[in-house]
Amino acid sequence: MKPIVSKDSIVYFNDDCYTALNAYLEKSNHSKLFILVDSNTYEHCYARFMSQILGTYDIEVIEIEPGEINKNIETCTSIWTVLSEYGADRKSLMINLGGGVITDLGGFIACTYKRGINYINIPTSLLAMVDASVGGKTGVDLGNLKNMVGVISESEMVLVDTEYLGTLPVNQMCSGFAEMLKHGLIQDRNYWEKMSDLSKLTVDDLDQLIYDSVVIKNKIVTEDPTEQNIRKFLNFGHTLGHAIESFYLTHPEKPTLLHGEAIAIGMIMEGFLSKELLSVTETELTQMSTIILATFPKLNIDPKDHQEIIKLLIHDKKNEKGNIYFVLLNTIGDAKYNCKVSDKMILESFAYYASL
């Protein structure tokens, strides 16, 4: 597959990944390599990664516990301290080997340590391959508020090696499908239709769909790298999805939600809002809801929690001057940003989701 070139980075796929990486390491003369992993990627992915590295380098491995709960400033502080203790300088390289938590967190740490060191993302989850590792967004959560602290700064390269997907449990694979479905809904009806029956996908189909998903996202972020206009499209499903994810993250008595599971709910609810406020048809909404629910079982959201979830919307990063803005759909494949939605209509979207 042909590498995908963005403004300041290149995404390589499968056979090209380690050829490109080894060539880069040989010529870049980094003083030390720091490989950031969590305990899962250390166990399941680290050996494969190291087996592909040619040459001898001064390498340190930094391992953290997995999960969104660890994507915070406290974890950053501990890693910054480790980097300092192990003599990391401005010629050091951070290699982030893991899912979205690792690529978001590791990118932010690299961008801020000594005012910035180079980093490379090697996403090992489907979600990170199609979303978190592409486009230069880095960051951490502030309490239960998603990605509130971060910077936009692209990695030296992204290596998408789909062999790592063989290590994932089913729910983690499904979490990534949510972002791929979103890419079709906001930008490409044909891609959405290709994604409409995941049960029929072959391995080759999946590789091509991952590639096409990255192409869609890269096209958007290359045109609008700092999210002034069309990059906001990528937040479809995320306004309500992030609020639901944040609420469940801080209520341990509730089920644990993966990012993609929360975004799937958000897409259905924001699809409903698109029908009510824009020009999505009833047929399109039914199709969207049916396809999403075929992969993501319905979550029973207690009506008593609705208002508390709505209160979290005020922290959404698209908001301006106290106004809450949504990304909605004119139709499948055509999105619109900066849409205002009343609390009454948001409550109706909860009711629609509950009715399915």
UniProtKB/TrEMBL annotation:
Its cofactor is Co(2+); NAD(+). The keyword Ubl conjugation does not apply. InterPro entries: Dehydroquinate_synthase, DHQ_synth_AroB, DHQ_synth_fam, DHQS/DOIS_N, DHQS_C. Keywords: Cobalt, Lyase, Metal-binding, NAD, Nucleotide-binding, Zinc. Its EC number is 4.2.3.4. Residues 176-319 form the 3-dehydroquinate synthase C-terminal domain. Residues 62-173 form the 3-dehydroquinate synthase N-terminal domain. Pfam families: DHQ_synthase (PF01761), DHQS_C (PF24621). It is an enzyme of class 4 (lyase). NCBIfam families: aroB. Catalyzes the conversion of 3-deoxy-D-arabino-heptulosonate 7-phosphate (DAHP) to dehydroquinate (DHQ). This is 3-dehydroquinate synthase.
